[in-house]
Input
Amino acid sequence: MKILFVGGGMGGTIAANNVARRLSKEIRSGKVEITMLSATDQHWYQPGLLYVAFGKMALTDICRDQSSLLEPGIKFFVDPVEEFELKQNQVRTKAGVVHSYDMLVIATGCEAVYDEVPGLKESSETPYTRDGAVAMFKKLRDFEGGKVAVVVGVPHKCPIAPIEITFMLHEFFEKRGIRDKVQLQYTYPIARIHNIENIAKWAIPEFERMEVDYETFFNMKEVDVDNKIVHSEEGTEKEFDLLVTVPPHRGLQVIEDNNLGEAGWIPTDRYSLMMNDQDNVFALGDTTNLPISKTGSTAHFESEVIGENIASLYRTGTATREYDGKVYCFIEADRGRATNACFNYIDPPEIKAPTKSMHMLKMSYNQWYWSSARGLL
Output
């Protein structure tokens, strides 16, 4: 049996390691072969970019060699897929190599895009890319005061990030002693300050305590670069001296080019995690169209389900688990505090008051991540 993983991010890595351990005997005997194809030999801890943007971590702290995170039985190639030939149960890579499979797992993720909002790229700072995080820290370090606007595009990965960015901006300017010189503004595209109602209810008094001005129903239309004004689709605007954005995201272009999903989002069954109309193709993580947060924890929990089901399908011909939409997110606050949100398709999160111990747990997880990527946590 040939099992092929396309994408070496958190979801693909955990799922591949999970399957490799469950089918270790079969791999050693040659009955099962696991292959991973990736566009890079590096593995980035993407949530760490937020800490890079505030000078709390360096890029070298959040990168490892991808091969070092994989179980020994996994064959790993840096050769991105360009063609998905699902009817033939094969893919074709950039180098022209054809890989056949019995089971395919697509975990290609998503990426920030700027072309949907004219003027956004040249006028804004963001922690969503490596270059962006480094540039944002330099900008924050040199900022001496004025209007700071946090503006959110949709859809985007890590839905808690806009809230966290706002807390961390407040704390950063406080520590620099210039918070009284900063007018901190926050916008959100729907009728509340976060799409999850309980998070929005918790955040409003926190924002008011920090004296953060907030506006809802603000969908970015364009940025007037010269005059430093963000215009919304609703006809309002925000002036800024520093613009921090959560840019819109799309699935990878290769997914759309191969007609696997509009805007790069693969239509996926929310419980089985099978690609719609396919019986041997799984999708997980940011690349799915599921109505659930695009976070590392989502990919982690999905990966456990997929790993167990692939092993079960091989051994018994039947899947044994369903994904319930489970997500767990830390939420960074100020004053060395954090809280968390745990929810699924049915149950909303209950947000508790931030604590220092939860912040310590979150910071510890930044180091434990590498064990998590191995599937050991």
